[in-house]
C-alpha cells in the first residue's frame, strides 16, 4: 500500500517528467483527483473507499498520473502569510538577451523568490516574492536587481488574495476522455 509518506518519498526520488502531450483523463481520474484534493491526507486505501474503486485501480491510476506529470507534487501547500511572511509582491523582470537559464539560477539562489515564470509581453519573467516586512521585501528586490541577468524590474505589492491558488475548478471543466475502464463507482459523501 502506498501511503502519504511513501507517495511523498516517491515524488522526491522520482520526479515525473514534463508531459509533451496532455494526459487523457477520464471520469475515474477526475474522481480520484477530486478526492485527493478534498481529502489531502488520505492514503490509497481511503481514496479507494471514497471513490468505491479497488485499491489497486486507484494506485495504478495515481501512478499513471504521476508519470504523465498530472500529479506534480505531494509537497504541502504552505501559506507563507500564516508562516510570518506577510508582505508579498509580483515582480516583472526584463532580462538580458538569452539569459533565461542564467536568471533562473540566480533567482533560485534568492530565498524570497517563491516562484518565477517566463512570460510574453512587457517583461520576460514574472516572479512572486515574499518577505516578513517591507524592509525584507526591499532586500529581496535589491537582491533581484543585483543579479547579472536582470536589466530592469517593476514590482507591485499584494494587498490581499482575491482568489487563492486552485486547480480543481479547471479540472472540473474537462470533458472526460471516454468511459472509465474501471467498474462503476460513486463518490462517498460525508454527512
From TrEMBL:
Residue ranges crossing the lipid bilayer per the database entry: none
Gene Ontology annotations of biological process type: response to amino acid
Superkingdom classification of source: Bacteria
Repressor keyword on record: no
Pfam family, one: HTH_24
Keywords, alphabetical: DNA-binding, Transcription, Transcription regulation
Signal peptide from the UniProt entry: none
Keyword Iron-sulfur: no
SUPFAM superfamilies with a match to the protein in the record: Dimeric alpha+beta barrel, Winged helix' DNA-binding domain
PROSITE patterns, alphabetized: HTH_ASNC_2
HTH asnC-type domain span: 25-86
Molecular function GO labels: sequence-specific DNA binding
GO CC annotations, alphabetized: cytosol
Name recorded for this polypeptide: AsnC family transcriptional regulator
Amino acid at each position: 500500500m502506498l501511503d502519504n509518506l511513501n507517495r511523498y518519498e516517491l515524488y522526491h526520488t522520482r520526479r515525473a517528467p514534463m508531459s509533451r502531450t496532455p494526459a487523457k483523463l477520464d471520469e475515474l481520474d477526475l474522481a480520484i483527483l477530486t478526492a485527493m484534493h478534498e481529502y489531502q491526507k488520505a492514503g490509497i486505501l481511503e481514496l479507494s473507499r471514497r471513490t468505491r474503486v479497488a485499491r489497486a485501480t486507484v494506485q495504478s491510476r495515481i501512478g499513471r498520473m504521476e508519470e504523465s506529470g498530472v500529479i506534480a507534487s505531494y509537497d504541502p501547500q504552505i501559506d507563507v502569510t500564516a508562516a510570518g511572511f506577510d508582505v508579498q509582491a509580483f515582480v516583472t523582470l526584463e532580462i538580458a538577451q538569452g539569459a533565461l537559464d542564467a536568471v533562473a539560477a540566480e533567482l533560485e539562489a534568492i530565498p524570497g523568490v517563491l516562484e518565477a515564470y517566463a512570460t510574453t509581453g512587457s517583461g520576460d519573467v514574472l516572479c512572486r516574492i515574499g518577505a516578513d516586512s517591507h524592509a525584507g521585501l526591499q532586500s529581496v528586490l535589491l537582491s533581484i536587481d543585483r543579479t547579472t541577468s536582470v536589466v530592469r524590474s517593476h514590482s507591485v505589492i499584494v494587498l490581499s488574495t482575491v482568489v487563492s491558488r486552485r486547480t480543481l475548478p479547471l479540472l472540473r471543466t474537462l470533458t472526460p476522455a471516454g468511459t472509465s475502464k474501471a467498474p462503476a463507482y460513486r463518490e462517498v459523501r460525508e454527512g
